[in-house]
Amino acid sequence: MMLEDRLLVWKFNRGDIGALRDVYEKYKDDLVTLAAALLTDVSSAEDVVHDVFVSFIESSRKFRLTGSLKGYLAICVANRARTKNRSQQVRNRVLPDRTDTTDPDSGNPEFAAVFGEELRQLGVALEQLPYEQREVLILRSHGRMKFKKIAKQQGVSISTVQGRYRYALDKLRSMLNGEVRE
Amino acid sequence: MISADNVNDSIRKLQLKASTDLDKRVHDDISIALARSQGIEPPVTGPTISRFITKGRVTKFAVAAAILIAFGIGFSTGRRSRPAQPTPDSLDVIAYTSIALSYPTAPKTEDSFWRQKALAAIQPRPHVDAQFTKTKLPGTYKQYLKEKKL
Question: Is the ipTM, as predicted for this complex, more than 0.95?
Answer without folding.
Answer: no
